[in-house]
């Protein structure tokens, strides 16, 4: 068992000696162990060593006759001795080869006993044969176990360990049974040797795995620490400056020509905000301060401090900068009045001398160059306790005050006063990561990723400053690109957010306006209807409560609903009911075709287009119909509405003079009226019945307002159409006449090519085209000069119109 004990000791020590191996530092901070152990006292007298006891040698076996013969022969001849030795060596070598071959032939049995049982003739083989066989079996057993352990290792908890030495106990546990199975010294010796080799490979591999695990753990820990840091500052919100009045001594400093007057005044605000909220007549009390009125002297009222590091002590701190009476006496003298101006001058003197004593630098030069940075605040924190915390607010107060005094803030934190503190936190975490064994490259990558991610999440470009401020040698090209990409993304997100907010506000505004429109339309309709007992309709008026609500809406959201309602009421009250037939026709056609609603109807009243109460009532009622209440919303009917609007109103491809909205509105009124009547009389009509009625009514409208189109729909031949055109027109059918247009100012045709085409056809004698009809309507037929002027004016207008 001595070999087993030696192996176990080796495994406990970490396998084989590895002078180049050093465990990776753990991220957990440890406390140094006291290694000053007390030495064992020396004995009072030297100990006499015992004489070694020689073991009793075993009796020599009786020599055989052969041995005696060989010995005798060896004494006669050295050559014969060499011959015998060489013969035995060759036999042993051949026995070893035979044993290796036999082991392979036997399919690697685990023991010599199993091999003999399988082949009894092996019992007669030489001791060398058996020794080689057993050694090979032992080595193979270790190699097989190693193969099994490789697969087992990656699924075991030890694979996730950060301890390089953890592998030794695991190997001991998984290989101990192999040693106990061996009985012969040769097999045990071979097994121990093979186990040492295998263990060394396992230990080396696990050390690398443990190092990677530790680095990964440290990286995750660093990322989490960064996230916590940024989250903490996000929770604090923007660093808001303390609200303080200007120092009384500022004007005196400025008048004296002090080049640092603005810096000194801003500094005084920066420290007084946290000490006294800028008040000159406040003294310390445990409950949060008390005001006093006598400014001629220091109050010198001592109060006991209830908690904190100075608990139990007393303080008589007073004034804007919370001077102790002892400090005041040393600075200004006991009898110096405790006036606001003297307090300012004393604070300037105290800050200047304390900063110089602690850093060796001039405070005002430092503030001018770098601003009220955290390290400057830390240097003055022993003087003013408020500077131990809220350093972002002190910096924000300093920067805001300096701007007010005409100065320009310098150093980090101008846009975000928390940035300098963030930089200090990040640098601290980077130092800890370096101590934990992480490389500079790994730290840089994690830091940059954390800064960029949080800047994008918070949509705050100022956080990107942390990346450059924590890299004293600047950013690499890749790092600069990552920062700029993040800046672009932040700006894009802000634009998206602004657009989304604008859409939300627009939707909310439209919803509020729609509510007003619906309310006004409902009231006007109710007033313009005949009463249940035949009472005449009332004069339409916008209700007072709606006007009041609109006025309030305008004040809160900056809308202009109230003025529109007032103007609409003025037009409703006018006695002049003459309307522009074409404008009313356009609106009516749009309402009946579903392109305009109650909002557009009320806008037309407001603009003075709609005046007739009957027309207003009819359009408001129709535009207010929704869903199944309006049969024109059915897809099988709506396309017929578009057909009437386009064909009779000549919306598609017609020049402006031939668009006849009046005829279109009349035709649509006929069609929609018929469909509403059918729906009212047949409320349970199926879609097929509704579509059939719509087709029939559509044909009637077409025959009345567009007979040629109706003939096409009925499938009449061109000859029949010509014959029909030769007959006298029906006096009951309306004749569509193009209206007059100020052609010198507005283009009549959609493009120059159409104008030329119509003009050439007219010259060839086609007096039935749109050009000829337009000439007749505008009294230009027979006046070549006027026609030429028309062509020239229209060509010029069409060439100058904007491209679409």
Write the layout of secondary structure elements.
Elements: H1 2-13, H2 65-76, H3 78-105, H4 112-118, H5 127-154, H6 166-181, H7 185-236, H8 250-255, H9 261-276, E1 282-283, E2 290-291, E3 303-304, E4 314-315, H10 325-332, H11 340-359, H12 363-370, H13 374-380, H14 391-404, H15 419-435, H16 440-458, H17 465-469, H18 477-528, H19 544-557, H20 561-573, H21 581-592, H22 598-606, H23 613-623, H24 635-648, H25 661-681, H26 687-705, H27 707-714, H28 718-726, H29 752-763, H30 770-777, H31 784-800
Antiparallel strand pairs: 1-2, 3-4
Helix pairs in contact: 1-6, 1-7, 2-3, 3-5, 5-7, 6-7, 7-15, 7-16, 9-14, 16-18, 18-23, 19-20, 20-22, 21-25, 22-23, 24-25, 24-26, 25-26, 26-27
Would you give an account of this structure?
The chain has 804 residues and is mostly helical. The chain folds into six domains: 76-215, no CATH class; 250-412, Lysozyme, CATH 1.10.530; 425-496, no CATH class; 497-623, no CATH class; 625-739, no CATH class; 752-800, no CATH class. Helices cover 61% and strands 1% of the residues. It has helices spanning 2-13, 65-76, 78-105, 112-118, 127-154, 166-181, 185-236, 250-255, 261-276, 325-332, 340-359, 363-370, 374-380, 391-404, 419-435, 440-458, 465-469, 477-528, 544-557, 561-573, 581-592, 598-606, 613-623, 635-648, 661-681, 687-705, 707-714, 718-726, 752-763, 770-777, 784-800; strands at residues 282-283, 290-291, 303-304, 314-315. The strands form two sheets. It has a two-stranded antiparallel sheet with strand order 1-2. A two-stranded antiparallel ribbon has the order 3-4. A hairpin with a 6-residue loop joins strand 1 (282-283) and strand 2 (290-291). Helix 7 runs antiparallel to helix 15 and helix 24 (635-648) runs antiparallel to helix 25 (661-681). The two termini are 100 Å apart. Residues 14-51, 652-657 and 720-739 have low confidence and may be disordered.
């Amino acid at each position: 068992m001595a070999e087993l004990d030696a192996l176990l000791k080796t495994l406990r020590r970490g396998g084989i000696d590895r002078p180049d191996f050093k465990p990776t530092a753990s991220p957990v901070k440890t406390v140094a162990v006291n290694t000053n152990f007390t030495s064992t006292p020396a004995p009072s007298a030297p100990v006499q060593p015992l004489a070694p006891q020689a073991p009793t040698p075993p009796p020599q076996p009786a020599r055989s006759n052969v041995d005696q013969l060989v010995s005798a022969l060896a004494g006669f001849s050295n050559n014969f001795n060499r011959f015998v030795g060489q013969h035995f060596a060759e036999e042993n070598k051949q026995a070893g080869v035979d044993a290796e071959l036999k082991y392979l032939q036997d399919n690697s049995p685990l023991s010599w006993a199993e091999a003999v049982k399988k082949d009894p003739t092996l019992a007669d083989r030489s001791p060398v044969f058996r020794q080689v066989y057993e050694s090979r079996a032992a080595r193979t057993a270790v190699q097989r176990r190693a193969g099994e352990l490789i697969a087992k290792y990656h699924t075991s908890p030890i694979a996730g360990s950060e301890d390089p030495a953890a592998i030794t106990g695991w190997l001991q546990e998984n290989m101990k049974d192999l040693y106990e199975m061996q009985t012969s010294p040769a097999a045990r010796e071979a097994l121990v040797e093979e186990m040492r080799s295998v263990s060394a490979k396992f230990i080396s591999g696990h050390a690398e795995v443990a190092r990677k695990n530790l680095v990964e753990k440290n990286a995750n820990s660093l990322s989490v620490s960064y996230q916590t840091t940024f989250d903490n500052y996000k929770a604090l919100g923007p660093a808001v400056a303390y609200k303080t009045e200007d120092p009384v001594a500022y004007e005196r400093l400025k008048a004296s020509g002090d080049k640092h007057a603005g810096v000194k005044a801003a500094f005084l605000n920066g420290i007084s905000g946290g000490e006294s909220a800028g008040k000159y007549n406040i003294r310390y009390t445990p409950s949060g301060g008390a005001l006093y009125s006598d400014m001629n002297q220091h109050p010198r009222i001592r109060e006991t401090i209830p908690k904190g590091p100075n608990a139990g002590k007393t303080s008589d701190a007073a004034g804007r900068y919370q001077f102790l009476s002892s400090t005041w006496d040393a600075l200004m003298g006991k009898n110096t009045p405790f006036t606001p101006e003297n307090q300012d001058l004393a604070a300037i003197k105290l800050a200047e001398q304390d900063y110089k004593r602690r850093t060796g630098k001039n405070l005002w030069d430092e503030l001018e160059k770098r601003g009220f940075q955290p390290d400057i605040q830390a240097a003055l924190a022993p003087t003013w306790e408020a500077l131990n915390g809220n350093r972002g607010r002190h910096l924000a107060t300093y920067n805001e005050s300096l701007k007010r005094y005409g100065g320009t803030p310098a150093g980090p934190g101008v846009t975000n006063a928390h940035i300098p503190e963030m930089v200090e936190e990040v640098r601290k975490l980077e130092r800890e990561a370096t101590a934990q064994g992480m490389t500079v490259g790994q730290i840089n990558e994690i830091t940059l990723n954390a800064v960029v991610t949080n800047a994008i999440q918070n949509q705050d470009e100022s956080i990107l400053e942390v990346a450059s401020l924590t890299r004293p040698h600047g950013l690499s090209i890749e790092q600069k690109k990552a920062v700029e990409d993040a800046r672009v993304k932040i700006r894009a997100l802000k634009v998206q957010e602004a657009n989304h907010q604008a859409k939300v506000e627009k939707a909310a505004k439209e919803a509020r306006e729609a509510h007003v429109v619906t309310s006004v339309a409902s009231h006007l309709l109710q007033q313009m209807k005949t009463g249940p007992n035949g009472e005449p309709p009332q004069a339409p008026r916008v209700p007072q409560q709606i006007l009041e609500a609109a006025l309030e809406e305008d004040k809160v959201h900056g809308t202009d609903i109230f003025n529109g309602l007032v103007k609409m009421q003025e037009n409703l009250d006018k006695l002049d009911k003459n309307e522009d037939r074409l404008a009313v026709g356009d609106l009516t056609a749009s309402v009946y075709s579903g392109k305009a609603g109650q909002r557009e109807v009320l806008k037309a009243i407001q603009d003075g287009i709609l005046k007739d109460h009957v027309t207003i009532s009819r359009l408001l009622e129709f535009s207010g119909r929704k869903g199944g209440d309006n049969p024109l919303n059915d897809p099988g009917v709506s396309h017929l509405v578009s057909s009437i609007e386009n064909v009779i109103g000549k919306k598609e491809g017609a020049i402006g003079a031939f668009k006849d909205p009046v005829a279109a509105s009349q035709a649509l009124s006929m069609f929609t009226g018929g469909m509403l009547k059918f729906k009212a009389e047949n409320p349970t009509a199926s879609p097929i019945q509704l579509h059939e009625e719509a087709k029939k009514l559509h044909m009637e409208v077409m025959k009345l307002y567009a007979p040629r189109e109706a003939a096409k729909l009925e499938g009449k031949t061109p000859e029949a159409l010509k014959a029909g055109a030769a007959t006298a027109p029906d006096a009951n059918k309306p004749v569509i006449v193009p209206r007059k247009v100020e052609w010198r100012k507005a283009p009549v045709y959609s493009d120059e090519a159409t104008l030329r085409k119509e003009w050439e056809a007219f010259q060839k004698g086609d007096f039935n085209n749109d050009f000829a009809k337009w000439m007749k309507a505008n009294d230009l037929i027979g006046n070549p000069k006027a026609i030429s002027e028309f062509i020239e004016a229209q060509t010029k207008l069409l060439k100058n119109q904007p491209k679409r």
